[in-house]
């Protein structure tokens, strides 16, 4: 201050130059951050201060929200969509194989269920393709297979298709099913096992050889019947493997199961459970095995996981358990009564070993 009354402009003293050295995690040191705050408060060199704030920081190196995190999140979701598309293709092949199996046995209700499964799965694939999660060329090939499969099964069911064409279709789904199933089982445990196409390629060669031998008369009559039943069994095993894969995923990442709906799992349990009585009554071991497995492991197994992780109430779990036990018991009791057996275990014995 001057004695003559002149007014002096007092500027803030410039802070010492900070050393902005980035830490290994990409975050500046605390002293540098404090100096930035001083610069901001005193408005010293605002251009330099703004430039520091605009330096991009990788989202994986900072806890501060950044638009790039949305990109990474969507990238993760698109990867899940792609994985979902592969899973849908597996389910679609299983539905087509079982549709052919039930159409050949003239099981109208079961064939309708599998047809609805094919259509509903195809609708999901259409949505995945529109979202860009499924390559267009794969979708076109899948559409061709679905169209041909539905048309051939419909014509065969109503007696409008020759045995030669039907035999070629059966060979196709047999080779496809046997090739896909081992590959799915192997891929479930990646990266615990090396990522390889060897299981699928090996199964493909074996399936082609088995079909050729069956068609050229190189197998016995029993062997031909065995090859003819392979498509149905591989389709059943595909659906049986789905809950195994789901449970393995839940074991590795328990948080994933929180996204499941208990009501959806109950509906899955009920849908598969409703087919148990018919499969038992006509003594179809393959159908019974697939329905029982899906009911116990896919439906009830996931309900049990939800309950253990406190994702559903005790009363809901108890109701599902009581309902499942009651339904299976009722099916066994009514089947034994219909056949005049004294014990429901007699029906199970006939199912496995024959009358």
Automatic annotation (TrEMBL):
Signal peptide: none annotated. The keyword Transmembrane helix applies. InterPro entries: MEX1/MEX1-like. The chain crosses the membrane at residues 84-103, 110-130, 136-158, 165-185, 197-214, 226-244, 256-275, 287-309, 315-333. Keywords: Membrane, Transmembrane, Transmembrane helix. It comes from the Eukaryota. This is Maltose excess protein 1, chloroplastic.
